[in-house]
Amino acid sequence: MPDPEQMDLDAFGGNKAQQAATVARRKGKSPKTTIIYEPRGRAGEYAALAANLYTGCDHGCGYCWGPRLLHLTKEEFMRARPRSEDIIEKFRRECEILSKAGEKRSILLMFTSDPYCCADLKHKLTRQAIEILNEYNLHFTILSKGGMRVRRDYDLIRQAGERATVATKIGRAHV
């Protein structure tokens, strides 16, 4: 006998992202995503969801736990770089899935890096991510030691209105 839920999904139509969002919503769960994830333990105090678009951070904060968490030497961690060549495309697909699922929890940019690390001056992944979050009407949180670099994206942050929470440190980046 055919699975009634699958029959209903077939009748619903749509792409795989829409179907996955529908199944997750029906089961009261978040859809499965890999770039946007639910932080475990105390990490969840910053936001219910997180996305790491960069590997590493070039601020060099003395207290940073990032190298230990990612099993990198301090030197490797300081060479911040995009997580993958197609990270923005993956992020966009997952934002679409979450949007279709009606996700209202905030997505932290970024837990194991700084969204406004020096590498972002070149790659601008944070700006692209905020554009996508706005496109899909998703909530987001930005915590940064990038100081004045955050100003570059004020136009997009203003666009988000109450969907955005932003905190930055103005001053020395190396603590």
Give an overview of the whole structure:
There is one protein chain. The chain has 175 residues and is an alpha/beta fold. It has one domain (31-168). It has helices at residues 4-12, 16-27, 66-70, 74-78, 87-100, 119-123, 125-135, 154-160; strands spanning 36-37, 49-51, 54-55, 81-82, 107-109, 140-144, 164-168. The longest helix is centred in the middle third of the chain and has 14 residues, at 87-100. The protein is globular, with a radius of gyration of 18 Å.
Describe the secondary-structure layout:
Blueprint (H helix, E strand, L loop, with lengths): L3 H9 L3 H12 L8 E2 L11 E3 L2 E2 L10 H5 L3 H5 L2 E2 L4 H14 L6 E3 L9 H5 L1 H11 L4 E5 L9 H7 L3 E5 L7
Parallel strand pairs: 2-5, 5-6, 6-7
Antiparallel strand pairs: 1-2, 3-4
Helix pairs in contact: 2-5, 5-7, 7-8
Please work out how many helical segments DSSP would assign. Answer: 8
Rg over CA atoms, rounded to whole Å, is 18 Å
- Biggest sheet strand order reads 1-2-5-6-7
Give the biggest sheet: 5 strands, mixed
Order of helices and strands: HHEEEHHEHEHHEHE
Measure the end-to-end span. Answer: 63 Å
Our estimate of the beta-strand percent is 5-15%
Query: What's the domain count?
Result: 1
Let me know the number of strands: 7
> Structural class, from secondary structure content?
alpha/beta
Let me know the average pLDDT: 81
Low-confidence parts, pLDDT < 50 over ≥5 residues?
1-15, 17-26
Q: What level of helicity do the residues show?
A: 25-40%
Shape: globular
